[in-house]
Every structure is written in C-alpha cells, then in structure tokens.
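hiii, so i know i said id send this last week but things got crazy w the move. better late than never?? heres the sequnce for the chain we talked about at the cafe, plus the structure i predicted for it. fair warning i was half asleep when i ran it
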Amino acid sequence: MASRAVKYSSDEYEISYEVVNPKCKKIVLFLHGWGANKEIMKKAFGSYLSELCHVYIDMPGFGKSSITDPLKTSDYAKIVENFCDELGIKPDIIVGHSFGGKVATLLKPPHLVLLSSAGIVVKKPFIVRAKIAIFKIFKLFGFGKFYKLFATKDVSGMSRVMYETLKNVVDEDFTKHFASFSGKALIFWGENDKATPITSGESIHKLIKNSSFFPLSGDHFFFLLHAKFISDEIEKGINFEPNEAKNVVLDDESGIEEIR
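okay and structure toks below
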C-alpha cells in the first residue's frame, strides 16, 4: 500500500492506493462505491486480469484517503484525474462500482466497466420524501444541526463533511453523461439489487450506444460472487491492439509497490 499527495483547487488530498502487476503495459483503474474502499475491489479482482496492471484507490473521504471539504462527483473525477497525472498513468479501462461508476463515466476512458452504477434517479418511497421535506423545513428555521434525526442508517456515524458530500452526489441524474459516452462499455448488474435496481442498468445500457449488459444473480455487491466471469468478459470484450502504453514502473521513490 502507498499514498500520493494530490492537489486539487486550493486543497491537497492524501490518496491511498495499491498497484498489482506493475510491469504490465495496459492499466485498469478500480473505483469503489459509496461507503466502501479499495480493499473490496482488490478482494474481488486482485486474482484475475493478470495481463493488466491494476490500480486500486481509496477516493477522498473513504478508506485511508483524506477529505477536507464537501465534494461533488465532478470534484472526485478531477481528483482521480490529477492522481493519475501524478503517477504518470492513463488507464485503458476504468471499473466503477455504484458511486464509482459515475466517477468512472466522467473520466471518459476508452473502455468503461460499470458494476451496478449509480446515476439513474429512482423515485423515493413516500416516507423518505416526507423526511426530506421535514428536514428542509427544520433547516430553514436554523435546526439543520439535527440532521442525524432524519438521516438513514447509511449515514450513521458519518462526519458532517461526508454527509454534505452525500447530499451533493446522491440524487444526480447522469442520463446525459451516459448518453454522451462514446467509448465501449460493459455493464454488469445484480438482479436483486435494491440500492440501484436492475431497471437502472437497463436504462444505462440503452443510453450508451456501444455497450453490453449482463444481469447476474446477487445484490448490490454481486461482483464479489462473479468476479471471474466479469474478468473473463472484460478480456473477451476488450480486444487490445499491440501498443506503446507506458509501464507503471516499480520504484520505491514513486510510492508504487506491487501487492503479491
């Protein structure tokens, strides 16, 4: 495991990351979902895609990476882009789970792999909409500090910075971003996903012209059960030409280390 200081706007973020197969020419970047970290992605895919250099990162505010102020999805994308520039890499493939799928889409890689991606707005149940309305009234009268009374279990113990970040990113409509993506996309989805329903995956598949859709058994973390199948489809669906892609060099001073 290593870390790299990344500057964005007026802030500096300490980004924790790990690299597997650093001598491989082609690079795949893995972006975790909300509330997760790089470890879950490495656990799923670290033993597969042996012909690719894997880069796993903790996005700001998750795992061991720092955060100072609330961010938007576009901020995350720019920070990840700056991180790649710092390492001198240009990912050929970006794999994004849930929230990470939105970040991956904004980065516009040649090859995009979405795992139950967020980005399609689904109407909330009445009780959730009522709680949001009541909270907005409380906030209007200066009682915003009681936000945890109206928060879901997902934000239990969450810092105020991360809560504000969640509010920024949770209900973004990424329809136009999916529709404008011009690369090749592989879309995998859990058939019993309650966080991002399979209808969202079907919608994204229709929006991205050059895409393939794979519904698989399981919930929001279905990819933990199907990592080999997903990896095989990535290898089959993305036919690489011989290239002059830059190697990720194993160098102690660079902060890059191989994880065996």
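btw The CA atoms of residues 8 and 79 lie 6 Å apart. thought thatd interest u
miss u guys!!
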